[in-house]
Write a structure and sequence with these properties.
It contains 30 helices and no strands. Helix 19 (about 415-425) packs across helix 20 (about 430-440) and helix 20 (about 430-440) runs parallel beside helix 22. It is an all-alpha fold. The chain is elongated, with a radius of gyration of 29 Å. Among the domains are: about 10-30 and about 90-410, no CATH class; about 545-654, Serine Threonine Protein Phosphatase 5, Tetratricopeptide repeat (Alpha Horseshoe), CATH 1.25.40.
Length: about 650
Amino acid sequence: MEYRRFLPFSILILITLLTFKIYSPGLKGGFLFDDYYNLAEMSHYGDPHDWNAAKKFVTNGGSGPTGRPIALASFLVHADSWTEEAGWLGNAEPFKRVNLYIHLLCGLFLFIVIRLLLKSYGYAQQKIEWIAVLATSFWLIHPLFVSTTLYVIQRMAQLPLLFSLIAMIGYLKGRALIEYKPLMAYGLMTVSVGLGTLLATFSKENGALLPLLILVIEFCNPQRMGKPIWQWRAVCLWLPSVAIAVLLIRYIDFSKDLWPNRSFNQVERLWSEGRIVTDYLRWLWMPRIEGSGLLQDGFIVSRGWFSPVSTLFSAVFLLGLFIASFIVRSRYPLIALAILFFFAAHLMESTVLGLELYFEHRNYIAAIFMFLPLAAGLCALTEKIQLKVVVLISVLIITLLAWMTWQRSVLWSDNDKLEFFWAQNNPNSERGQVFMAQYLSDRGQYGEAHHLLVQALKKHPQSGLIAFQMLQQKIKAGTASTEDFSELQMHIASHRSDPQALIRARDITVIIIGNEKNTAMYAKPMLNVLDALIKPNSPYKNVPNLEAMILVLKGLLSVALAEPELGYKYYDQAIRLDPDMNKSMAMVADLGNHGHRQLALKLLDVAEAEYRKQPDSGINRSRVFFDEKIVQLRKNLILDLKKDHEAMGNIRVD
């Protein structure tokens, strides 16, 4: 009979190994979307193996108010797989493998948390183990979390859960000691909640919800024995929870155009989130292999209670669910816990903050107790039907989830197939249609790509992303005309602000200066388009560093047009607006490479003067590195200038 004590844990280990196996195909997939933006910074500050470069990468994160330094620090483990030379072609597998390890570790910690929680809720010991195994298995192997685990940058969503689970273990362990060793109990709970909240928050901001989540666990607990005194709860749980609530309330602003770079305002976001949270619940309880993935920009925004009508139905459903959790709390505490914990975990990302509307990873923490009622129900069912029938039902559920997760993991192993699948299944997504057009264009199917974008632009007339992509593809196909540039220039004022469109503008400029024919045909019309992007009526005018970026692009075009003095003027203005030394030296090099050495030396003096004004914290690499680069660049330019003079009989170039 001794083996029965270890049977639940043995099964959990088998489930953990099964999870690793079914996720393994997806480890071969590459980087996606925000991976590039966040990880590129790893080499931006120099060799990430250098302490100063690594410190700047960790402390200069731009993904959230905290900078998420703990999550960023974890990526340094894979510095050799993402180098400045490898760039986007770096190896994503080491990143994804660690993400998978974190997912498995979260599963093991969740098992411990559920065991401790059920014990504090007064469940019988013989049921606790099996409920914990089933609930953990359903969460661990659920296909919804593939997009969190195999999307490299979503380690930022995993680490808050990891630290929160460790904190919950400490809290529940301490809670169990209150009656016997109160001093040790309160010390353990305080350290666990305090340190856990800090670590979780500096991994991602929603980690700050940990005290509220523990309050929910406590609120649903039917047992009063061992409950922490109200003074401790007030300071360690209620105070930080109220602080978060006050902070969110301060963000309430029902202005019509609160977020110019979004296709919705705050009221519309709240309406839409009701439908989205309902959607999350649907996919948790009726899982699918793959949906729209990361291309959620095509989600139809709610413009009113009846637009679409599912907005009202979703709000009524969620309100009913919320009320029901209070009604059943005494008799079915696990149902109340699953509902209230889910709502509390969505409080930050699914309410008033101006984030994108829909992401599956927002359920990673929210759903950890979602399957507790199902697991407890299956265990209770053994008292009414034969045990082998319950075992069969449980095995069938796990098998179905495992098969779906494996299928999704296989799809995630190939980026092209994955993104094409998303685009096909989300025809309302601007990014999806642009990806499909790019996919076709790269294979020489310019006609099909153009037709796709024409139809997409009819559906999304305010999309600058689609408009710039269409122009880019016409240039590549050799079919662009000056009228195409004029038409784009004319419609820029009606665009919806989208930083992705500006990336296309940059790419178009690079294509134009890539050969003399394109430069002669398209450079001047492109200069007019760039001017339109920074006019007072431009929707892009509030994009950070936009003017400096446009000046750089205008400088590139002017130099390519053999107008070096004008190019110098644009570069000079760009450097004074944004004195980034890497960019500055690239502009100097552009002038030098086109034979304008004296202007390049003059611009280098400007760049160096601006660089000297900056504090150490304002430069992305060490002073020694840039000082050496400046000396070497000046030496090379002077040497080239001497050679030019010798070759031309000492005739000045500029």
